[in-house]
Amino acid sequence: MSDVTTTDIAGASEVRDWITLLKPRVLTLVVYTGIIGLLVAPGTMHPVLAVTAILCITVAAGAAGAMNMWYDRDIDSVMRRTIKRPIPTGRISADGALTYGVLLAVGSVVLMALATNWLAAGVLAFSIFFYVVIYTMWLKRRTPQNIVIGGAAGAFPPLIGWIAVTGSIEALPLVLFAIIFMWTPPHFWALSLWAHQDYERAGVPMLPVTHGARETRKQVVIYTVLLVPLTLVPWLMGFNTWVYGAVAALLGANFLRHAWLTWRDEQDEAGVSLTKDMPAKRCFKYSISYLFLLFGALALDRLLLA
């Protein structure tokens, strides 16, 4: 006979809700790029301190996610993608989520300072501030350029990982920051093309809502065209070998192909039903794999071949 009780099930469900507040799917990319920044940085770091630094980046990003959910609880309650989140459903109170986020944010910054250096802690604190205040509270509901400027929030992890090791800001981590910054618009706008009705319902001025699907698809192409040459800069700087350059070029060519197919597809125009396998959705999914593979190639080439 099972020993699992209703209380146990409820407790497990509550734990899952608190974890959901951290936006675990987003955290995967944050942790990964933070690790890459730490691995490619010159110098050595004790494994325990390295793990602590990555933990701090993870917790800080989760804290920002929790505070984002606290502030966006009104629009989350009307969007299909977010209506089942813990705060809109009442499973977690707004005040509880805010307290949770603030405590995790403060704890992660203090621990980063103690385990690594104050510069890494300062940039970590600024990344939280940027995502919560600059993006969530200021830009998101005011301008269709919200994701362009706000994309900086997700670009900090490799920079922070590098600074945790070196204690300084140098050219290469700034290039990694710029790559993620330029990657964010085509990544997120591809998503918004097949989720634009949610944003329209919530009154969020995402580009497809304010300027239409055609302009959004054009911007996906433009930013992808700008992104691909930027990914070759680590090789041109001599930080990586031609192997990374070749991988970056091939991955970029495929990203350009997805962006072009998205541009050519017009089923997102008004009055046309969207299919689950529309090019914009495929472009969004590929953009995730693209960044994982690109940063993985950069690290492997640097650590094994350089």
UniProtKB/TrEMBL annotation:
PROSITE patterns: UBIA
Chief location category: membrane
Catalytic activity: heme b + (2E,6E)-farnesyl diphosphate + H2O = Fe(II)-heme o + diphosphate
Biological pathway: Porphyrin-containing compound metabolism; heme O biosynthesis; heme O from protoheme: step 1/1
EC number: 2.5.1.141
Alphabetic keyword roster: Cell membrane, Heme biosynthesis, Membrane, Transferase, Transmembrane, Transmembrane helix
Segments traversing the membrane: 26-43, 49-71, 92-112, 118-139, 146-165, 171-191, 220-237, 243-263, 283-300
InterPro entries in the cross-refs: Protohaem_IX_farnesylTrfase, UbiA_prenyltransferase, UbiA_prenylTrfase_CS, UbiA_sf
Homology family: Belongs to the UbiA prenyltransferase family. Protoheme IX farnesyltransferase subfamily.
Listed PANTHER family: 4-HYDROXYBENZOATE SOLANESYLTRANSFERASE, PROTOHEME IX FARNESYLTRANSFERASE, MITOCHONDRIAL
Other notes: Carbon 2 of the heme B porphyrin ring is defined according to the Fischer nomenclature.
Protein name: Protoheme IX farnesyltransferase
